[in-house]
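Notes from hallway chat w/ T.B., transcribed later so I don't forget. T.B. wanted the structure written out for a chain they're using in a teaching module, and asked if we could keep both sequence and structure tokens in one place. Agreed to drop them here.
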Amino acid sequence: MIVEVVGGADERPEVRVVETHDLTSLHLALGQVTDEEADEALRAAGLGRVEGETGHLDTAALRAAAEPAEAPADWAQRWDAMLEQARSRGWAADDGASLQVHVESAAGA
């Protein structure tokens, strides 16, 4: 799964959650936006924030944005497995409310 922050209409960054079927990896991809613009867009979308080279995504908001309307029967189980893997690697907050994710920035942003 990828959370993207890309340039949108009127030069305002947009946040999109894509590849929601792939619950084996999760990262934050920044298009031609600054870290500050990405942080502002994520906060406005209620999905999280950017701190340096680390993204922090709200678990409940991410699930709400990512879960397909007609999710496959095993989607929730795969979601839980993804969260457990994040916890086991120290990428989840103690209360499980957020996940730390790698930030990939576009060149020249």
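Follow-up for T.B.: The CA atoms of residues 23 and 78 lie 6 Å apart. Might be a good example for the class.
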